[in-house]
Design brief:
The complex is a heterotrimer of chains A (488), B (474) and C (324).
Chain A: E1 2-6, E2 16-22, E3 29-30, E4 35-40, E5 45-49, E6 54-59, E7 66-68, E8 72-77, H1 105-110, H2 117-126, H3 144-153, E9 169-171, H4 198-207, E10 218-220, E11 223-225, H5 228-236, H6 266-281, E12 284-292, H7 294-309, H8 317-330, E13 336-339, E14 344-347, E15 353-359, E16 362-364, E17 367-368, H9 376-391, E18 405-408, E19 428-432, E20 436-442, E21 445-459, H10 465-480
Parallel strand pairs in A: 15-18, 18-19
Antiparallel strand pairs in A: 1-8, 2-4, 2-7, 3-6, 4-5, 6-8, 9-12, 10-11, 12-21, 13-14, 15-16, 15-17, 19-21, 20-21
Helix pairs in contact in A: 2-3, 4-5, 8-9, 8-10
Chain B: E1 8-15, H1 21-30, E2 35-39, H2 45-49, H3 52-68, H4 84-108, E3 112-115, E4 117-122, E5 125-129, E6 137-147, E7 151-153, E8 166-167, H5 169-172, E9 181-185, H6 189-200, E10 204-208, H7 220-232, E11 236-238, E12 242-249, E13 252-258, E14 264-269, E15 271-274, E16 278-280, E17 313-315, H8 326-340, E18 354-356, E19 361-366, H9 369-374, E20 379-385, H10 390-395, E21 401-407, E22 413-420, H11 423-436, H12 440-444, H13 455-465
Parallel strand pairs in B: 1-2, 1-6, 2-3, 6-17, 8-15, 9-10, 9-15, 10-11
Antiparallel strand pairs in B: 4-5, 5-6, 7-16, 12-13, 13-14, 18-19, 19-22, 20-21, 21-22
Chain C: E1 2-5, H1 7-21, E2 25-29, H2 45-49, E3 54-56, H3 61-73, E4 77-81, H4 92-99, H5 102-105, E5 115-120, H6 135-139, E6 145-147, H7 152-164, E7 169-174, E8 183-186, E9 198-201, E10 206-210, H8 215-224, E11 230-234, E12 237-239, H9 243-253, E13 256-263, H10 268-280, E14 289-293, H11 304-307, H12 311-323
Parallel strand pairs in C: 2-3, 2-4, 5-7, 6-7, 10-11, 10-13, 13-14
Antiparallel strand pairs in C: 1-8, 6-12, 9-11
Helix pairs in contact in C: 1-7, 3-4, 8-12, 9-10
Classes of the chains: A alpha+beta (488), B alpha/beta (474), C alpha/beta (324).
Chain lengths: 488, 474, 324
């Protein structure tokens, strides 16, 4: 029976592709998934796989033709199968098969699914509804492969993490502790276990104090021990003579082995002073979140080869920079500078993104200028050049000035979240954690996805937490669904 | 036990050790469950002790006697002497071997065997009354219970079984000496199998059947060879007659049967065997205690896992819906054991084969042509007569045919019907084909050994495809 | 090699192994010989070892126990059985005046290597006297060891340890669970040391101490509780009590509950609560909860289920300890 195969969607919403060349001839026998043609879109070149086992009856186009997506592409001869629209098999990057492909005539007539007992058992084990599986065996019989494919393909492609899903993790180390009565008093000990007489525990309970927080000077049986008086004193927040011994009790030992010193000057000192000025001037708030970037990973993989052809090493940073710029356009307040002396906030019209670089001499932040006006490849190229210059100390001062927003990629070394210090006098800095596979919960199921943790520190004099969150959400949107950057 | 009631705890309590129960027990034991199997009579149930096995043994023995004495065509002359008591002894030996085997298999798989009659006592408990000179009764506390109590012969009013004049199939297979004549009420598979046995052993057999055909669920084409043979064996079959009453008369009895107009026919005979069907055994279980009730057919409704309306109570075999067949019970026993053990098992079989061990045998699996059409298929049918089969001719048994039913469009085999020599064995190939979702092409293009009866299966498939070699294609 | 046995089968197995390895071990009691024991605990022993080592006695508890004391004093190792622990009372004098004291009385010249076995506890719908749980009486008597296994594996191991012990052991068998479940029990003799508790379930929020037939409902309650992480300790021996394990558990959690079917007042729950606060007062975060039988004679069958602690009542008690 003839099986007509139409050109499937070759990705990224492209409506047509150029048939570069055929990989099979008419009359050839093909197996399912065997590539039959190379088709090029303006984004990438893809291979089109055969949707069935069979023989090639007719190739409907010539090499060099522009083939619209959805047009009849190849006709195959398959035994026993009714002619179907071939929109069930997709090109490489599509996740999951469509389970709604028209069932074969046999199944429609009787509602019966034909499958051997071993396959039925497998379907039960994998939790697959056999009646919804499209069979690719002879006459539409359901095979083991069909069941396994249905089991995997049932998961949806990674979606852009919507605003509602990800929990915002705000770490605000500067917010004053609100413990009743203990404000300005002794620091809570925060132990896990405390020994105390039951009466003492009663006192703690009455005073609303967690006995594990009462600083302990005494130890019994190797555990911290507190008296009722200690509980009282802690509750009153007085400067009782309990001392500031931590959970370890008074037994802390001081290192007695001596020390070595090294000079604090030069670049180290410059960095130190800059850090101090930034941190002590701007109240920092860091907003943490995680972007699910399966799509970004795929996109970059696809484009990497093309970039290499142009002699450009394409990392994730250009994508992040593009995403940041797109988000800054929407939330320009993060692309600004507070000038307290003039009582004004200057919102910058340029988009000059600093990229923190770790060098032997310390941290440097070369600036890629006018990121909004440059293409991805240009950004990558500029950045690579600047980073190289920074590393061999040939970078100029101008090349490290004029930044309006900075990005620091500590994840290149490792780690998930941090509290980066803003590159003063900018208003915000985005820290990137390590790109890694982490568990992601979607629709009640946990799967392993490529994720990128983000840590955005902002100057809370200029920007509020809400804007920080919104900005971050926007950045994550672009990172999760890089195609959106095409619209920018 | 002196005072008090100490429950024995178990994970799975199975009531009835027939082909459903003992298979469930062995499988559950294999899966590491703590199983207790309760049986009030004999391990192996009706099938092993009073049904399938003894009847097939007697069929074979009576066949041997009959064939030896009627093989002159082949140049064999003999007049065999038959000692029925010895035949029955041999049959009993076969049964004992099998039931002993069941007991051994159960013990080897860690199954705890309890002899007695069980009934539900509420609260996940069974009360078992020990038979014989056992110690009264005991309580079994179960996590899961499986009801596999099987079925018993239906008693016709007026024909209560007395073991002497009015007998059931079980008693019929235990007779040490045969009567000169016998009336068999019911021309179903039990009635016809036993009639054939008696006829071959020289008994004058009269069959009285209420409907107008024997083995009515198989259709005229399949029963014709059997009817023909019955006539040849001297079995006198009367249709449209319902057995009404009997009374003693001289040394024997007289059985009176009525037709639909009310006219009576009388049959003088020595004994009457009543084989009008079987009914599920659920009335001895005190099902109310566990909140269950049999449906109108007397069965316990179950889902595809064998579970009843009560979550931890399962039913299999003749007490559950479906054909009353031992292999169906065994399959259900396996599934239920696996479900209890937490495996993703289910009754998802596509077809249950059935066989009648008459002469010739009948066997079917899956859909008939009519059933296939009803279900929306376009049926393709292929048929191969045994008189075109070389092997069949060499056995002297060439009456009958193999018929296969498939879906015209896809070629999927939907069913098969066979009447003829070894039908009960040959049907297995089609059972596999139906389960696998095999097509006519698959069977037709598989090389079958020559010369065998099984070639007829291949040729029937070829016939459906229009290219059989040894018979004319339509 | 091992076999899946019920608790009473494991007792039988332990008796058999004990008798096989030492000719001085003998079994005596009502119906233990030809009848094989009313609970089948001595089934087959009469056939294997004969009537000089498996002795059917008259219905006379004082005589049974007293004779055993005499036999033990002179070098035999008798394992007398009292058919129900509630019938030990007629022989109580023999137990507390002699069985427990002969070592002291003789300054160590005589010890009594005897094991007094009795099925104990309720839950079998029996009439009066047949459901007693008075392990506290015997734990209170110095000079006696008291054992109460709750699993088949422990039953055989502790019985063999008791038979081999040179001092007297009161071996109480919770008959409700005689056949409740099966467990793998090694064929060869082995010991489970007396005086050692077993942590049946580890946890960090509340320690629950229990023994006998109450172990199973306690574990059931503990496993069902979602917010509370419960640790369950099966004492197994009631004299000596393994206070090391108990205190270690209590120091971990700071909260305790005790479950026993014996009546509340004077039950061993009180002993444990007292010792806990002696040894670990500073760790205590809540009062010790006791979930027990009531201070009434054990009721008849119809009310039995209200008397015995069951998972719902046990969980409620644990909740109390947790919420304090």
């Amino acid at each position: 029976m003839a099986r007509e195969f139409k050109l499937p969607d070759v990705g990224e919403g492209v409506a047509e592709g150029e048939l570069v060349r055929w990989l099979v001839d008419e009359g050839d026998t093909v197996t399912e998934d065997q590539p039959v043609a190379e088709v090029e879109t303006d984004k990438a070149q893809v291979e089109v796989p055969a949707p069935v086992n069979g023989t090639v009856r007719t190739l409907h186009w010539d090499e060099g033709d522009i083939v619209p997506v959805g047009d009849l592409f190849v006709t195959f001869d398959v035994e026993g199968e009714a002619p179907e629209p071939a929109d069930d098999e997709e090109a490489t990057e599509d996740e999951g098969e469509s389970d709604e492909a028209a069932a074969s005539a046999t199944s429609e007539a009787s509602g019966r699914t034909f499958a051997p007992p071993s396959v039925r058992k497998l379907a039960r084990e994998l939790g697959v509804d056999l009646d919804s599986v499209e069979g690719t065996g002879p006459s539409g019989r359901v095979t083991e492969g069909d069941v396994r494919a249905a089991a995997e393909g049932g998961e949806e492609a990674a979606e852009p993490a919507s605003e509602s899903k990800s929990a915002t993790q705000r770490v605000s180390g500067d917010e004053p502790a609100s413990a009743g009565g203990a404000a300005g008093g002794q620091e809570a000990a925060g132990r896990e276990k405390t020994l105390a007489a039951p009466a003492t525990r009663g006192v703690a309970r009455e005073l609303g104090v967690d006995i594990n927080d009462v600083p302990a000077v005494e130890q019994r049986e190797g555990e911290a021990f507190v008296t009722a008086e200690a509980v009282q004193a802690y509750a009153e927040g007085g400067q009782a003579a309990q001392g500031e011994a931590a959970a370890g009790g008074p037994d802390r030992e001081f290192a007695e082995g001596g020390e070595t010193t090294q000079p604090y000057r030069g670049i180290r000192r410059t960095i130190g002073e800059a850090m101090a000025e930034s941190k002590y001037t701007a109240p920092h708030v860091t907003h943490h979140d995680t972007a699910v970037i399966d799509n970004l990973v795929k996109t970059r993989a696809k484009l990497k080869a093309r970039a290499e052809a142009e002699d450009v090493k394409l990392t994730y940073m250009p994508f992040v920079m593009k995403a940041v710029v797109a988000a800054l356009k929407e939330f320009p307040i993060l692309n600004s500078e507070l000038r307290e002396a003039e009582d004004e906030i200057a919102v910058k019209q340029d988009y000059n993104i600093g990229v923190a670089v770790a060098t032997d001499a310390g941290l440097m932040v070369p600036v890629v200028k006018h990121v909004d006006q440059k293409s991805m490849l240009e950004i990558a190229d500029d950045m690579n050049e600047l980073v190289a210059k920074a590393r061999d100390r040939s970078i100029s001062r101008e090349e490290m000035q004029g930044g309006t927003f900075s990005i620091t990629n500590f994840g290149a070394i490792g780690g998930e979240y941090a509290t980066p210090i803003i590159n003063y006098p900018e208003t915000a800095i985005l820290g990137l954690g390590a790109i890694d596979e982490r568990p992601v919960a979607e629709d009640g199921e946990v799967r392993a996805a490529k994720t990128l943790p983000l840590s955005l520190s902002i100057d809370h004099r200029v920007v509020d937490g809400a804007e920080a969150a919104q900005f971050t959400n926007r950045v994550m949107e672009y990172l999760s669904d890089p195609e959106l950057l095409l619209l920018e | 036990m002196v005072v008090g009631d100490i429950s024995t705890g178990t994970e799975v309590a199975i009531v009835g050790a027939g082909p459903g129960g003992y298979v469930a027990a062995i499988r559950a034991g294999q899966l590491g469950l703590d199983v207790t199997l309760v049986e009030k009579d004999a391990y192996g149930g009706t099938c092993l002790n009073y049904g399938c096995i003894p009847s097939k043994a007697m069929i074979t023995a009576s066949d041997v006697a009959h064939e030896a004495g009627s093989a002159e065509e082949m140049g064999v002359y003999a007049d065999p002497e038959v000692d029925v008591a010895e035949m029955v002894d041999w049959k009993d030996g076969v049964v004992d071997q099998l039931t002993g085997g069941v007991e051994k298999l159960c013990k080897a798989n860690g199954v705890n065997l309890v002899e007695g009659r069980a009934e539900f006592a509420g609260g996940d408990k069974l009360r078992v009354v020990h038979g014989g000179d056992g110690q009264g009764s005991e309580t079994i506390e179960y996590e899961h219970a499986v009801v596999s109590t099987g079925s018993r012969p239906i008693e016709v009013p007026g024909f209560e079984f007395d073991g002497e004049h009015v007998i059931d199939s079980r008693q019929a297979l235990a007779m040490d000496d045969l009567p000169e004549s016998i009336v068999v009420v019911g021309a179903g598979y039990i009635g016809m199998e036993l009639s054939t046995v008696f006829a071959k052993l020289g008994v004058d057999v009269t069959v009285v059947e209420m409907l107008d055909d024997m083995l009515p669920q198989y259709g005229e084409a399949l029963t014709r060879p059997v009817r023909k043979r019955a006539e040849e064996l001297g079995i006198d079959v009367h249709y449209g007659l319902a057995a009404d009453s009997w009374e003693e008369s001289g040394d024997g009895i007289v059985v009176a049967a009525e037709d639909e107009d009310g006219d009576t026919t009388e049959f003088e005979t020595d004994k009457v065997l009543v084989a009008v069907g079987r009914q599920p055994v659920t009335d001895t279980l005190n099902l109310e205690a566990v909140g269950l009730e049999p449906n109108d057919d007397g069965r316990l409704e179950t889902d595809h896992e064998g579970r009843t309306d009560v979550e931890n109570v399962f039913a299999i075999g003749d007490v559950a819906p479906g054909p009353m067949l031992a292999h169906k019970a065994s399959k259900e026993g396996q599934v239920v054991a696996e479900v209890i053990a937490g495996e993703p098992a289910a009754m998802d079989y596509q077809a249950v084969p059935a066989a009648v061990f008459t002469d010739p045998e009948i066997a079917t699996v899956g859909l008939t042509e009519d059933e296939a059409a009803e279900q929306g298929f376009e049926p393709a049918v292929g048929k191969f007569p045994f008189n075109a089969s070389g092997r069949a001719l060499t056995t002297g048994e060439s009456d009958g045919f193999v018929q296969v039913v498939a879906d015209e469009e896809s070629g999927f085999i939907l069913g098969a019907q066979i009447v003829g020599p070894e039908a009960s064995e040959l049907i297995a190939e089609f059972g596999l084909a139906v389960e696998m979702g095999a097509t006519l092409e698959d069977v037709a293009s598989t090389i079958h050994t020559h010369p065998t009866l099984a070639e007829a299966s291949m040729e029937a498939a070829e016939h459906a495809l229009g290219h059989a070699i040894h018979t004319l294609n339509r | 090699m091992s076999e899946n046995l019920t608790l009473v089968q494991a007792v039988r197995d332990g008796l058999r192994d004990g008798m096989a390895e030492d000719d001085d071990v003998l079994v005596m009691g009502q119906d233990v010989g030809k009848n094989g024991g009313v609970f089948r605990a001595t089934e087959g022993l009469y056939d294997e070892f004969g009537d000089e080592r498996v002795i059917d006695t008259p219905l006379a508890e004082s005589g049974i126990i007293g004779s055993a004391v005499g036999m033990a004093a002179y070098g035999l190792k008798p394992v007398p059985e009292i058919q129900f622990s509630g019938f030990m009372y007629p022989g109580f004098d023999q137990i507390v005046s002699h069985m427990s004291r002969l070592r002291t009385r003789s300054r160590g010249r005589y010890t009594l290597p005897m094991v007094l076995r009795a099925p104990m506890g309720g839950g079998i719908r029996a009439p009066e006297h047949h459901s007693e749980s008075k392990e506290a009486f015997y734990a209170h008597e110095a000079g006696l060891k008291v054992a109460m296994p709750s699993t088949p594996h422990d039953a055989k191991g502790m019985l063999i340890a008791s038979i081999r012990d040179p001092d007297p052991v009161v071996f109480l068998e919770p008959k409700k669970i005689y056949r409740a479940f099966r467990e793998e029990v090694p064929d060869d003799p082995y010991e489970v040391e007396l005086g050692e508790a077993a942590v049946r379930k580890e946890g960090t929020d509340v320690s629950v101490f229990t023994w006998g037939a109450m172990t199973r409902p306690t574990i059931e309650a503990a496993e069902k509780m979602e917010e509370v992480d419960v640790e369950v300790v099966d004492l197994r021996s009631l004299s000596p009590i393994d206070f090391d394990t108990i205190v270690e558990s209590f120091k971990k959690t700071g909260r305790a509950a005790i479950v026993h079917e014996a009546p509340n007042t004077g039950g061993l729950g009180a002993e444990i609560a007292a010792t806990i606060q002696e040894e670990a007062l500073l760790y205590q975060e809540a009062p010790v909860e006791r979930i027990t039988g009531f201070d009434v004679p054990f009721p008849l069958a119809a009310l039995e289920d209200y008397y015995l602690p069951e998972p719902a009542r046990i969980a409620a008690g644990i909740e109390e300890a947790f919420d304090f």
